[in-house]
Amino acid sequence: MSATADLSGMEWVKSSYSNNNGGNCLEWAPAHIPSGTVPIRDSKDPHGPALLFPARSWRAFIAAVNEGRMSH
Question: What range(s) does the DUF397 domain occupy (predicted)?
């Protein structure tokens, strides 16, 4: 068993908060969620590393952002 998820061939979706100005952009792979994790990567480095978050934790984070519970 590999300690690293095989993310080759995954379809990546750019964050809706990203723009085309080369700024800080995240991508995620929604098709990987059934495995129990959500891969996140830097869109400017598509061949670089991805962070894997437990799907439950990622949903809680997104809910907190959407509800305004995260501050700058």
Answer: 11-65
0.90 cut: is pTM over it? no
What separation in angstroms does the CA of 9 have from each of 5, 29, 31, 52?
Answer: 12, 10, 10, 16
Q: Which two tokens stand for residue 62?
A: 């997104």
Among left, alpha and beta (phi > 0; psi -120 to 50; other), residue 27 is beta
Residue 60: enclosing H or E segment and its boundaries?
helix 55-66
What does the pLDDT look like over 31-65, one tens digit per residue? 887 888 999 999 888 888 999 999 999 899 889 98
Find tokens 């995954």 and name the residue.
10
CB 31 within 8 A of CB 13: no
Specify the length of the chain in residues: 72
